[in-house]
Design brief:
This protein is an alpha/beta fold and 332 residues long. It is 42% helix and 18% strand.
Length: 332
């Protein structure tokens, strides 16, 4: 009888251990994610539901991701990156930081413009920036949303405009080179200098102007478009517009970091991001996704008017543009 009880006890212990070891052996993939925090949370939940993978997401701006991987090379603190700009993607590929995955089958029928030809990175879709306003404070002032970017130079907006800093934000870098593309370098810098007189502060991330304008801290914000539909749905008094000159645009580039021990799991994620299921899910936010046929959560079936941009020029001149911006606008 004692032996029988001992065997039953041992079996129970083994069963408990096996259950706990099963929990601890769940696949975890660490990723640096350069998206709005609500979008990051939604992607984490989506990946867990669809793939059974625990995505440990480190939320940070594009500039911070670029600086992080440069500092960490060759031993990265993450397995992959989900969403950075073309500048960070090209830098990471050029400096040998990425694993190639050219045979992601879900991406095969997606237009080649959304894929690196050697499979080092994939573009989930286009995002842009908009001019956001707090409709409550606009009404209190008796103001209307500006129709032109140059309307922001009116002295009545002094201290009421917020926009991100290109020192830390990839969105902000895109905003700045969009204006340089729109007006030409010389006139573009003059426009930014005049705009600076009305800017209350420069934020760390590209989505932060959405948050502070939504809370009524400022009337206007030049901000990434991705979190706008989320905050409007949540009831924030946000209105948005695309001024008559148009807006710039960028991609959301995703890649696997070299040396990861979770290569196969990271490949599964990359592949899933190209599937119709994920692309439809991703389109509910403020993006124009890589797969055609999915209306954007902000723009619907329409596409905004885009400024003509030479992205290769922007990547090549990134250091120069940032240097000039710091010299002119970095708050002391």
């Amino acid at each position: 009888m004692k032996m029988k009880k001992l065997i039953i006890s041992l079996f129970a212990i083994i069963l408990v251990i096996s259950l706990f070891s099963g929990i601890s052996s769940a696949i975890e993939v660490k990723a640096y994610v350069g998206l709005a925090r609500p979008v990051v949370d939604a992607i984490v939940n989506h990946v867990k539901k669809e793939l059974g993978i625990e995505l440990k997401a480190g939320y940070m701006s594009w500039g911070e991701i670029g600086a992080r991987i440069k500092a960490e090379k060759p031993r990265f603190g993450a397995d992959m990156i989900i969403c950075v700009g073309i500048s960070q993607a090209v830098m990471a590929k050029t400096e040998g930081m990425l694993e190639s995955y050219p045979d992601a089958h879900a991406w095969k029928d997606i237009n080649a413009i959304y894929k690196d030809p050697e499979g080092y990175y994939y573009n989930l879709g286009t995002f842009s920036f908009v001019l956001a306003g707090n409709k409550t404070r606009l009404a209190e002032k008796g103001y209307r949303m500006p129709k032109s970017w140059k309307d922001l130079l009116d002295p009545k907006w002094k201290g009421e405009i917020v926009m991100p800093s290109p020192v830390t934000s990839g969105t902000a870098f895109m905003i700045n080179y969009s204006f340089l593309s729109l007006y030409g370098e010389e006139e573009g810098w003059k426009f930014l200098e005049a705009l600076d007189k009305n800017v209350a502060r420069y934020t760390r991330g590209g989505n932060e102007p959405t948050e502070v304008v939504g809370r009524g801290e400022y009337i206007l914000g030049i901000t990434a478009d991705e979190a706008i539909p989320i905050r409007i749905k949540e009831g924030f008094p946000i209105v948005w517009t695309i001024p008559e000159e148009g807006v710039g645009y960028e991609g959301n580039f995703t890649m696997i970091l070299k040396g990861t021990k979770k290569l196969e799991a990271s490949k599964r994620i990359i592949n899933h991001l190209g599937t119709p299921k994920f692309q439809e899910f991703f389109s509910q936010f403020g993006y124009l996704v890589a797969r055609p046929g999915y209306p954007g959560g902000l723009y619907g079936k329409d596409r905004p008017k885009f400024i003509k941009i030479d992205h290769a020029w922007a990547v090549e001149n990134r250091a120069k543009i940032l240097g000039q911006w710091k010299e002119k606008f970095l708050r002391k």
